Amino acid sequence: MKPETNTLRIEFRQLLALMALGLFGCSAPKKVTFPESVDTNDKIISYQMKKTYEIEKMDVWVSNEFDAARVNGLEQINDSTIALSIEPENLPINKSPYFAFRTWAKESKTVYFRFTYPKGFKHRYNPKINKDGAWQIVDSVNLIKEDSITTLKIAVGQEPLLVAAQEINSTAHVRNWYQDQIVGTNNFVRLKSAGNSGLGRNLPVLDIYNGDAKGKDIIVLLTRQHPPEVTGYFAFQSFLKTIVAKTDLSTAFLNKYRVLAFPILNPDGVDLGHWRHNSHGVDTNRDWSLYKQPEVRNVVSFITKTAKKDRGRIVLGLDFHSTYEDVFYTNKKRKGTTLPNFVEDWFALLEQKIPGYKVNEAAGNSTKPVSKGWFLYGKNATGITYEIGDETPKDRIQEIGTNSANAMMELLLKASEK
To answer: How many whole angstroms separate alpha carbon 258 and alpha carbon 215?
Structure first.
């Protein structure tokens, strides 16, 4: 065989492999047009230096050498005060400074940690402390606020304390949770991958249904686009646990419907301790139009290909986030969509299930390329951003998450019977 002929055959096989992997434009997900565009091209980020800082004159140590940590530097102010420098991954960025560090001392002592942020930013999150595996919110008397400066007063000893803006749920924590609590012995939960993040981390997806997938309407659940927004993730956990609870309601629901649940859409940002963006310096929840970021591109491709393969119709998308208060962001356009009456009926039923609870709804069609707009403009489906307050208590989050899941299943079952 001539060498050039062999080369041609190798190149032809490589061409076939590329086609099989869908690396040509014909397999790319269809772009969705929004009224207002956002630049989601890659941006430069600043990596924090990972190290354990020793404050020799105090015999105190501070470390950011773990996933989801955030401390960019420190300075001793006096014999009891340490100024922590907390900086974002890049600018511009929203005003939600995130921090996380471990600290310990040679001997027990009181230490004051002063949070310092770049100009234009101020303290947002009430610090949480983890000792012996349990998280506790710092008592307000130990959080000193003077003008624009916030200082945390804590007792530091030989046993390391974990201090963070929000409870840490790294990719490892998330993986352990869904493997133990959701996949476990539930043979109707199929653990799959939508691909990888910019730094090669897995984008897991839980494909959930009973029986045959063919023709089942699809509900999509998303969370952790923004790393610090763990209260929304907690609601996602309660919501999903209710769907797989094997109750009569959940069993009947999964006989009729299919759920695609994505428990961590921005694993790089989470493990890098970012305030908001992914490893390419971009807010993934502004990329649901052109899909320039691998996380959104891979998730959208997975959803679209799955629906097409099994002839499933995407009817509902819920994206779990956190903000200053509990709020549901909805689209005003509902007539002619897959579930035109779902929003009103869902909120009314949720208020019935929780005595005294009043849904806080903020309605407005998405102008920027966010996920709830993608469901509306791209799939003619109901899209909702499900926001939980930064400081909403865990038992309240669980109550809302559980009851909203049950209300959704009841309504969609009724809809399937018509």
So the answer is: 9
pLDDT tens digit string along 120-177?
Answer: 999 999 999 998 889 999 999 999 999 889 999 999 999 999 999 999 999 999 999 9
Total domain count, the chain? 2
Question: Do 210 and 123 lie in a common domain?
Answer: no
Q: Where is the domain boundary, 164, 196, 211?
A: 164
The H or E element spanning position 322 is: strand 314-323
Cβ neighbors of 151 (< 8 A, separation 6 or more) are: 81, 112, 113, 114, 115, 143, 144, 145
As a whole number of angstroms, the distance between CA 221 and CA 215 comes to 19
Do 156 and 70 share a domain, yes or no?
Answer: yes
Report pLDDT for 27: 62
Q: Based on the domain organization, do 101 and 178 belong to the same domain?
A: no
345-356: average pLDDT: 98
Give me the CATH number covering residue 398. 3.40.630.10
- Cβ neighbours of 95 (radius 10 Å): 12
What are the φ/ψ torsions at residue 113 (nearest 5 degrees)? -105, 115
Neighbours of 138 (CB within 10 A): 15
Alpha helices in 166-323, H assignment, sequence order: 171-177, 230-243, 248-256, 267-271, 294-309
Residue 9 is inside which H or E element, if any? helix 3-20
Per residue in 226-280, pLDDT tens? 999 999 999 999 999 999 999 999 999 999 999 999 999 999 999 999 999 999 9
The boundaries of the domain holding residue 56 are 52-164
The candidate with the shortest Cα–Cα distance to 411, out of 341, 312, 319, is: 341
Residue 2 — pLDDT band, cuts 50, 70, 90? very low
**For residues 257 and 208, is the Cβ–Cβ distance under 8 A?**
no
